[in-house]
């Protein structure tokens, strides 16, 4: 594998570094591309090798298409084409010239299959080719490929890329890649020590991996080198460990934000109104299914604007879940005020009915909710810390939702009425506040917020009729831990439980970690029987 | 007055249920029990199997039924509740007098109904891949045993085509199937020269939804300078968040391939698979396999369920094979009598949907081909490797010392599901 | 107080009827099952014996919950935990009775330990070979857990919904713990494949009939104990605590000790229910710890009517019978039926089925009027 790569890249590099003038004859290249559609993976590998050996950059589109699974053969004459799916048909293009070849239906073409080994090969070949690309992201990806492949033959083009690179960070990465390659290729101990020095400044997992390999392999016979290597590894590991703590913190915040989103609606229906709302999870589920419906409409009607579907789904989910919440309040819960335990019974019944209704309409299987492009992928810092975009957005979203609720409660007329009804219903009613209306709206607000949480959760979890069930217990824990009736308590409760969980998980495993957190909650409630932020005053006793 | 009513009610409530016993109806049809959860956590997987059974029964009735009698489906909902499975199994056999039952998904549900089937001499067809270590005379296992799924998959990972992995991460949900499978795999990996230092094992609870830490841990385990692959026995609901996290943390199949044993077309239907292309699954069936039988099956399924987008998967094929075999055995025996049908089952053959022929062995497990497929961006799998012929399902694994000495063979002279020597010699 | 011993039972007609029906069941069902052939119209089929036995175990569990919820005002969302612990204690004994008849034929270790490579029996499994010890554990383990849990919670004055949620946390944590295969309780599969109990084959109808009669007797005994407690002075204090905990405390009662007593007794009853349940259904697994299961227990009691003890029995039997019936007859629709039942019960029968009886006999004075009044009041509130 490695030898092949060396050969290929060497050929490519020669073609690149030297003047890329002398192309092989054109029919030859077409023939080679047709060879990519060979029957076995072995033959395909050989075809890729042959194609790369021509050193012709015009092969790049064909190789890229092959890597991305867009390369097909026509069933009629076995010609290789690039096919792009568009609605029900495929749009065909010639792999070499890019000229359009019309359309075809699925039955007329056959995909050129690749496996992981071939993918790795293709990526390595393309990495060498794109190191000089004008696009910075492409170059960054190319450096990563080069670092992974770690091939001596890439040095010349790497040197060239380093001298041309203007971005300091990227140049640093390129130098690291160069040091990584040289560390294994150079024999001079002093030169190697320099490489180690460079590498030790880059705390990334790949460096740790190659240092470990270096210590086990080439360095073994030279005690001085072993010492230097271990020192470098030590430095890398120390700072990786530090960044790992940051990673734990981020993951804890992220879990906390998920808990917060799931619980914040409950903090209103349960915390403020005193309804033991077992149907809360189903409101979250309704929000997730609303997202699914919105995306279906976008997929069929506005595929171009798919990235914005989530933005439409958020208010819609609020309205759908909110409306269902108002209906539940008007239909059932308003008859049960003052009997909180009976709300448990009734809302449990409602939750069963809602689950089965969704199952009957959408089927019991998972539904696909896609991620908009701005929520896919991650920020990867040069230290190996991965901050996934979807989690980042969810953290921000949860804070925004809480801020919005606080604003509604503190600054609007409705919020004022809501607080007054909670504190003293009779007095509020006698002041002319329509207590029944306020109840309905408050319950609607709590449910609507749960619906919005559903939009966010659809990005990280299953969208199935069971979605709500998996969050209901955690939500109650968060609200009770934070202190019933206190929004701030819910926020602090959610984040502290999330972070505690994520710091415990690597130490004790996921299951034990969760058990420990539950036990901690039980013990904590003994210490503070009314949660983190207890309400004070007479109202507490009733 | 008031107390009198109390009297009637209290007496009625406790005793009244008895009257519901009901008299068994005359057997003018052949009754087929369907024991799959239609609500609760497992409904997501099992409801489809109920629908497949209804389709197969309808199809058979279209051909005139069996032995001149129509088939009648008896559907019950055990609601993902394991003791309820046992209760419903008893109800099907004892009260409804069904001739055969197709059902169960999880191992625990099978374990729960097993004593009932053995006591009442019922007949169960179990369609899901499982951990093995069992052979009951009253159960036919039409899903894969570990040697029909796990071992070929690991072979592929270690091979040059599969990337030549040298470190293996075993990720699983904490229950008996992953535990047993991973135990078998660990001992198999040892035989391939991979030491414990290069094996990471991790278990998570059912429905685990926060995979950030574990995926990060896998990434760091993979950065030790050796090619690493993941073997996943993560169950059901937990898979979607797992794959979403994999995609977002940018783990590419060519860097760290993940091969899964519980992820099929149905599970992928809830996912955008574009970032997952190249990750693997090992099954005995893929929807994408191009054979006339499969095409006809998919067409019939889509027409029956009235949804062009529904997919087919491996347990559905298992029910298809199981039902066909049972029907053939009933015809051969000329009766639906459980003992007669069981005898007729041995050596029964049915054409696989993926080509080749499935055979029922005397250990109640099937011989089936093993396929390894890569996830494609359209939610389907593409076969990248398959066994040359069929693999005989092993009830008892050769890689667990206690179980290696056991044999399952329900024909003379063995007549036993877990014996070290024949019962009759 | 001055109530004679005869009063605490004889004064309660509903209770007497319950005891009488239990006695009839305990004798009648086995007789009709074993004595009559299947062709007879009055024959009780085997599966019905098992089913009724299961209902009776649930009834006992509901009764235990009613003792704390209906009388002491402690809403436990974790009673399933005590039930499951009792069940596990019984299950462990039954596992030991299998001996070397497991699939691997290992005389020392249960099957699940054999194939997970356990070398020796964990210490906490020792003693369970002995039936008496196991039965002691059936009441002791839930009892001790309840005592410790209650000791802390009641002394810290954790009440109301906070208490409910931490009981839920308790059962949830136990569920996760028992799911772990490393715990040595069989993980998700739990304990199963039992062969016999005290040498009697568990698949033998006669053994089943005896277990059934024992369950009926246990419900009866628990009812008598419960009635004795609630009718005593202690019971009256409990009701006082339920209705106004603060006042009871100011009157000088050590509220936490009264609560702790009822709570521990209730947990032990739940443990017995679990122990009777396991041999009749043939499996115990961590699913019994699941929080929704414990919520369901509350619902049985609410449907039957809390604070009467026999209402809990009635509710448990009715709801479970409805579940059995609907999951077979209407497999796609039964959740609608069950959900509808719960909503209707809360809206129209606020005191459960038992509480609804007077209003049927006298619509002018009964609950029905009160229920209607709720609607009227809402109308008024809206108008104002």
Structural notes for this entry:
With 542 residues, chain A is mainly α. Chain A has 21 helices and seven strands. Chain B is 38% helix and 18% strand. In chain B, strands 7-6-8-9-10-14-15 form a seven-stranded mixed beta sheet, with helices on both faces. A five-stranded parallel beta sheet of chain B has the order 2-1-3-4-5, sandwiched between helices. A four-stranded antiparallel beta sheet of chain B has the order 11-12-13-16, with helices on one face. With 384 residues, chain C is mostly helical. In chain C, helix 3 (46-72) crosses helix 12 and helix 13 runs antiparallel to helix 14 (334-348). The longest helix of chain C has 27 residues, at 46-72. Classes of the chains: A mainly alpha (542), B alpha/beta (425), C mainly alpha (384). Chains in contact: A-B, A-C, B-C. The interface between B and C is large, with 61 and 69 residues.
Summed up:
Chain A has helices at 2-17, 26-34, 41-53, 60-67, 116-130, 136-149, 155-164, 168-185, 189-200, 205-216, 223-272, 280-301, 309-331, 340-362, 389-411, 413-423, 425-430, 435-457, 469-482, 487-508, 510-527; strands spanning 71-74, 80-86, 89-93, 100-104, 109-111, 378-380, 386-388. By secondary structure, chain A is mostly helical.
* H/E element order of chain C: HHHHHHHEEEHHHHEHHHHH
Structural class of chain B: alpha/beta
Radius of gyration of chain C: 22 Å
**Uncertain runs of chain B with pLDDT below 50, 5 residues or more?**
7-26
* Mean of all residue-level pLDDT scores of chain B: 89
Q: Strand order across the biggest sheet of chain C?
A: 1-4
Keywords:
heterotrimer, A: 542 residues, mainly alpha, 5-stranded antiparallel beta sheet, two-stranded antiparallel ribbon, 7 strands, disordered C terminus, B: 425 residues, alpha/beta, 7-stranded mixed beta sheet, 5-stranded parallel beta sheet, 13 helices, 18 strands, 38% helix, globular
């Amino acid at each position: 594998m490695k030898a092949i790569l060396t050969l290929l890249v060497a050929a490519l590099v020669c073609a690149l570094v030297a003047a890329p003038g002398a192309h092989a004859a054109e029919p030859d290249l077409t023939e080679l591309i047709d060879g990519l559609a060979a029957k076995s993976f072995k033959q395909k590998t050989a075809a890729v090798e042959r194609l790369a050996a021509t050193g012709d950059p015009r092969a790049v589109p064909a190789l890229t298409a092959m890597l991305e699974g867009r390369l097909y053969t026509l069933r009629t004459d076995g010609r290789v084409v690039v096919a792009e799916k568009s609605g029900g048909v495929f749009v065909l293009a010639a792999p070499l010239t890019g000229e359009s070849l019309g359309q075809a239906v699925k039955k007329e073409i056959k995909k050129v299959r690749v496996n992981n080994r071939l993918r790795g090969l293709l990526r390595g070949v393309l990495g060498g080719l794109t190191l000089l690309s004008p696009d910075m992201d492409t170059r960054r990806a190319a450096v990563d490929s080069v670092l992974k492949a770690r091939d001596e033959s890439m040095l010349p083009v790497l040197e060239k890329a380093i001298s041309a690179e203007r971005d300091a960070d990227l140049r640093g990465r390129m130098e690291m890649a160069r040091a990584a390659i040289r560390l294994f290729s150079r024999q001079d101990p002093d030169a190697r020590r320099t490489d180690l020095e460079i590498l030790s400044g880059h705390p990334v997992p790949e460096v740790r991996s190659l240092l470990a390999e270096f210590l086990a392999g080439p360095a073994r016979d030279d005690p001085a080198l072993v010492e230097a290597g271990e020192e470098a590894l030590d430095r890398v590991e120390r700072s990786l460990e530090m960044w790992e703590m940051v990673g734990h913190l981020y993951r804890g915040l992220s879990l906390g934000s998920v808990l917060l989103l799931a619980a914040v609606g409950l903090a209103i229906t349960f915390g403020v109104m005193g309804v033991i709302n077992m149907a809360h999870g189903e409101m979250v589920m309704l929000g997730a299914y609303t997202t699914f419906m919105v995306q279906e409409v976008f997929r069929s009607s506005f595929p171009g604007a798919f990235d914005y579907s989530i933005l439409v789904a958020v208010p819609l989910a609020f309205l759908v879940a909110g409306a269902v919440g108002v209906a539940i309040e008007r239909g059932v819960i308003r008859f049960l005020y003052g009997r909180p335990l009976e709300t448990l019974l009734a809302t449990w019944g409602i939750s069963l009915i809602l689950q089965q209704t969704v199952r009957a309409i959408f089927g019991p299987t998972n539904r696909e909710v896609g991620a908009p492009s701005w929520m896919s992928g991650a920020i990867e810092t040069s230290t190996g810390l991965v901050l996934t975009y979807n989690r980042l957005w969810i953290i921000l979203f949860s804070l925004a939702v809480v801020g919005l609720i606080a604003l509604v409660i503190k600054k609007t007329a409705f919020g004022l009425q809501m607080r007054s009804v909670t504190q003293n219903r009779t007095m509020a009613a006698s002041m002319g506040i329509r207590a029944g209306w306020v109840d309905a709206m408050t319950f609607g607000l709590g449910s609507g917020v749960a619906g919005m949480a559903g939009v966010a959760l659809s990005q990280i979890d299953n969208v199935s009729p069971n979605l709500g069930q998996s969050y209901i217990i955690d939500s109650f824990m968060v609200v009770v831990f934070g202190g019933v009736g206190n929004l701030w308590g819910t926020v602090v409760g959610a984040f502290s439980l999330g972070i505690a969980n994520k710091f415990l998980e690597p130490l004790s495993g996921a299951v034990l970690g969760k058990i420990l957190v539950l036990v901690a909650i039980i013990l904590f409630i003994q210490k503070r029987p009314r949660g983190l932020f207890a309400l004070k005053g007479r109202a507490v006793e009733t | 007055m008031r107390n009198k009513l109390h009297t009637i009610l209290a007496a009625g409530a406790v005793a009244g249920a008895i009257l519901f016993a009901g008299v068994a109806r005359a057997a003018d049809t052949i009754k087929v029990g369907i024991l799959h959860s239609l609500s609760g956590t497992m409904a997501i997987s099992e409801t489809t199997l109920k629908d497949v059974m209804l389709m197969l029964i309808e199809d058979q009735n279209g051909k005139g039924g069996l032995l001149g009698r129509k088939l009648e489906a008896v559907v019950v909902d055990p609601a993902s509740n394991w003791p309820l499975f046992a209760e419903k199994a008893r109800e099907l056999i004892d009260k409804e007098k069904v001739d055969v039952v197709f059902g169960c998904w999880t191992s625990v549900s099978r374990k729960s109904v097993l004593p009932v089937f053995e006591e009442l001499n019922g007949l169960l067809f179990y369609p899901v891949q499982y951990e093995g270590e069992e052979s009951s005379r009253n159960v036919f296992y039409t899903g894969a045993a570990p040697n029909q799924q796990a071992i070929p998959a690991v072979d592929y990972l270690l091979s040059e085509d599969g990337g030549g992995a040298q470190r293996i991460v075993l990720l699983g949900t904490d229950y008996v199937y992953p535990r047993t499978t991973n135990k078998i795999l660990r001992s198999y990996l040892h035989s391939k020269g991979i030491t414990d230092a290069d094996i990471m094992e991790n278990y998570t609870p059912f429905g685990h939804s926060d995979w950030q830490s574990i995926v990060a841990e896998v990434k760091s385990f993979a950065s030790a300078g050796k090619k690493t692959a993941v073997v996943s026995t993560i169950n059901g609901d937990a898979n979607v968040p797992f794959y979403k996290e994999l995609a977002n943390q940018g783990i590419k199949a060519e860097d760290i391939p993940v091969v899964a044993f519980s992820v099929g077309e149905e599970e992928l239907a809830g996912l955008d698979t574009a970032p997952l292309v190249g990750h693997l699954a090992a099954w005995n069936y893929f929807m994408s396999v191009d054979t006339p039988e499969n095409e006809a099956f998919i067409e019939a399924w889509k027409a029956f369920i009235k949804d062009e987008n529904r997919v087919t998967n491996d347990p559905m094929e298992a029910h298809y094979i199981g039902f066909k075999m049972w029907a053939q055995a009933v015809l051969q025996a000329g009766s639906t009598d459980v003992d007669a049908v069981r005898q007729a089952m041995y050596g029964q053959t049915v054409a696989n949907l993926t080509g080749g022929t499935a055979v029922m062995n005397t250990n109640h497990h099937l011989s089936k081909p093993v396929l390894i497929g890569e996830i494609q961006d359209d939610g389907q799998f593409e076969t990248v490797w398959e066994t040359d012929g069929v693999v005989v399902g092993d009830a008892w694994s050769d890689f667990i010392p206690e179980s290696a000495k056991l044999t399952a063979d329900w024909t003379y002279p063995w007549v036993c599901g877990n014996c070290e020597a024949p019962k009759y010699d | 107080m001055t109530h004679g011993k005869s009063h605490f039972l004889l004064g309660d007609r509903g209770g007497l009827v319950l005891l009488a029906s239990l006695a009839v069941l305990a004798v009648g069902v086995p007789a009709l099952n074993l004595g009559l052939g299947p062709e007879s119209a009055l024959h009780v089929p085997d599966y019905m014996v098992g089913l009724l036995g299961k209902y009776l175990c649930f009834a006992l569990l509901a009764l235990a919950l009613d003792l704390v919820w209906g009388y002491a005002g402690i809403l436990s969302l974790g009673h399933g935990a005590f039930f499951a612990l009792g069940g596990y204690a019984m299950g462990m004994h039954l596992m030991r009775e299998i001996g070397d008849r497991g699939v691997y034929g290992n005389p020392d270790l249960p099957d699940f330990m054999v194939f997970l490579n356990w070398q020796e029996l964990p210490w906490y499994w020792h003693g369970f070979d002995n039936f008496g010890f196991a039965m002691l554990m059936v009441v002791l383990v839930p009892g001790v857990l309840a005592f410790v849990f209650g000791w802390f919670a009641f002394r810290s004055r954790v009440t109301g919904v906070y208490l409910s949620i931490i009981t839920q946390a308790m059962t949830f944590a136990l569920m996760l713990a028992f799911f772990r295969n490393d715990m040595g309780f069989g993980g998700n599969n739990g304990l199963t494949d039992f062969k016999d109990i005290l040498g009697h084959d568990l698949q033998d109808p006669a053994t089943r009939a005896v277990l059934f009669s024992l369950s009926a007797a246990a419900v009866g005994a628990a009812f008598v104990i419960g009635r004795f407690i609630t009718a005593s002075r202690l019971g009256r204090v409990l009701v006082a605590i339920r209705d106004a905990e603060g006042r009871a405390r100011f009157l000088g009662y050590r509220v936490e000790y009264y609560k702790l007593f009822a709570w521990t007794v209730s947990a032990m009853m739940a443990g017995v229910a679990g122990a009777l349940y396991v041999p009749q259904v043939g499996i115990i697994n961590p699913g019994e710890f699941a929080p929704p299961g414990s919520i369901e227990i509350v619902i049985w009691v609410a449907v039957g009517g809390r604070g009467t003890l026999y209402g809990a029995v009635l509710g448990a039997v009715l709801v479970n019978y409805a579940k059995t019936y609907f999951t077979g007859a209407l497999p796609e629709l039964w959740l609608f039926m069950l959900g509808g039942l719960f909503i209707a019960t809360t809206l129209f029968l606020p005191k459960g089925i038992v509480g609804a009886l007077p209003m049927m006999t006298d619509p002018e004075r009964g609950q029905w009027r009160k229920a209607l009044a709720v609607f009227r009041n809402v109308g008024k509130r809206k108008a104002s």
